[in-house]
Amino acid sequence: MRSRRFILPIGILLFGISSAFAQRPQQRAQAGPAQTQAQPQAQARPAPEPPPLFFKEAWKTTPQGGQHPVTPDSLASPNLELKLYGDGQNILMNERNPPLHLFTGACETNCAVAFREKNNYVDLTGHARIRWVTRTSGFHFVHPIVKLADGTWLVGDYSDGSNGYTRDYHTSEFFLDEVHWIKLDMGRIVTRGEFVDHPNLSKVDEIGFTDLMPGSGMGLGGFTCLGAIEVYGKPVPRDAVQTSAN
Q1: CB 152 within 8 A of CB 130
Q2: 140-184 pLDDT tens trace
């Protein structure tokens, strides 16, 4: 009798536990679809729209022909202004050997070239990029330079070139948001100060290049050549005050 008294409560307890476990999967199955429907579906982000072509310069032949100091007459784009810095007066335009290109070998001190669009600044944030055709010799490397709307000059750590001699021209492309920038002294075309963290490239006044080195003269000693250059970014209209000031 005593054993029966103990067996009966234990049986009731085991039945209750098994019933509870049997109900839980059913409750989860019933709750699952409702919870799934309540969760918002993740939406794919649209790919960023690539910026338009801001300008392209591929040069043009002039009555001078041959090889001569570069002047605005060599510009193929009527909306661009040519800016020469440092010993820029000795930068040559070569019309003899294709493609048409600038040659910095005759620069006796550091020199630089920049382009200014007459009607617009350019926004070089986001996926803005530059594509150019270059050739170098010696230890010369081509670096991008930009002039901000407030007059600050920056030179980027991106470079194209080789330790030696590039036999032919090559085309390269790079994104501006992947470049690290340092301030540039445009009087001597040398770097100064520390790297600038996250410079504001939303309103850029001029864009160009430098190799931060004098040329070695005519021949293959040391030089940089720039053929065509393309800049992709959003135009930002210049205001009347800034246009008149420049």
Answers
A1: no
A2: 999 999 999 999 999 999 999 976 666 789 999 999 999 999 999
Alpha carbons 92 and 219: distance in angstroms, whole number: 13
Strand 92-94 with 170-175, pairing: unpaired
- Rounded to whole angstroms, the Cα distance separating 229 from 198 reads 24
Residue 104 burial (10 A CB sphere; 0-12, 13-18, 19+): buried
What is the SS3 assignment for 40? Answer: coil
- As given in the structure block, the two tokens for residue 169 are 């021209």
3-class DSSP string for 106-175: CCCCCEEEEEEECCEEEECCCCCEEEEEEEEEECCEEEEEEEECCCCEEEECCCEECCEECCCCEEEEEE
Q: Report CA torsion sign: 188, 191, 193, 199.
A: positive
Q: Is the distance from CB of 191 to CB of 182 less than 8 angstroms?
A: yes
86-to-61, 98, 186 alpha-carbon distances in Å: 25, 26, 7
Tell whether the model's pLDDT for residue 42 goes beyond 70: no
d(CA 169, CA 228): 10
Global pTM value: 0.78
Q: Which two tokens stand for residue 111?
A: 């020199």
Reading the block at residue 213, the tokens are 């080195």
Q: What is the pLDDT of residue 40?
A: 54
Kindly compute the dihedral angle of the four CA atoms of residues 57, 203, 148, 107, in this order, to the nearest 10 degrees.
0
* 3-class secondary-structure state, position 17: helix
Gap between the Cα atoms of 87 and 112, Å rounded: 8
